[in-house]
Write a structure and sequence with these properties.
Largest sheet: 5 strands, antiparallel
Number of helices: 5
Structural class: alpha+beta
CATH class of the largest domain: Alpha Beta
CATH superfamily of the largest domain: PriA, 3(prime) DNA-binding domain
Number of domains: 2
Low-confidence stretches: none
Helix content: 25-40%
Strand content: 15-25%
Mean pLDDT: 86
Distance between the termini: 52 Å
CATH topology of the largest domain: GIY-YIG endonuclease
Oligomer: single chain
Length: 167
């Protein structure tokens, strides 16, 4: 069994110990997704000695990491900068780490991107805003915000058209 100290992207906690699954490898600096209660949080595998001696937690109490995110590891100089900034500004290390990592490292790739287009059906109640939106959209396809910008109407108008089955 391999043990890894993970600095989570939360201001409330310091590094926590996790079990690395046998089929995975998590070297220092690896970006990972770890369980914390019922939540899944992002974090980075950190050195053991950086934040003092780890508390003795039995191997049987460790939880498995969910996954190692396929992004380049955080380099050692950047990890030292996080530690220094945390010490100098008396800020929680997890909060400083959150500022360092790009949000794309933790974007949920399984979340689908939904685009809409006209179905050919018109809603029973056509307001002037809905008429403008339907004419502007035509045969185009896009996400709610894109269609709203194209038609120069609010997102609520587009969502109303979606709810009526027009998009």
């Amino acid at each position: 069994m391999t043990r890894a100290r993970v600095l989570l992207l939360t201001a409330a906690l310091g590094p926590l110990d996790y079990r690395v699954p046998r089929e995975s490898e998590a070297p220092l600096g690896s970006v990972v997704i770890a369980p914390l209660g019922p939540r899944r949080l992002g974090g980075v595998v950190w050195e053991d000695e950086s934040f003092g001696a780890p508390e003795a937690v039995g191997d049987n109490r460790l939880r498995n990491l969910y996954e190692v995110v396929p992004v380049p590891p955080v380099p050692a100089p950047l990890r030292r900068l996080v530690e220094w900034t945390s010490d100098y500004y008396l800020a929680p290390p997890g909060a400083v780490l959150r500022m360092v990592l790009p949000g794309v490292a933790f974007a949920d790739a399984r979340r689908p991107i939904v685009e809409y287009r006209a179905t050919g059906e018109l809603p029973a109640r056509m307001t002037p805003q809905r008429t403008v939106a339907m004419e502007a959209i035509g045969e185009r396809q896009g996400m709610v915000r894109e269609l709203a910008a194209l038609a120069e109407v609010s997102d609520a108008v587009i969502r109303g058209l979606i709810n009526t089955g027009a998009l």
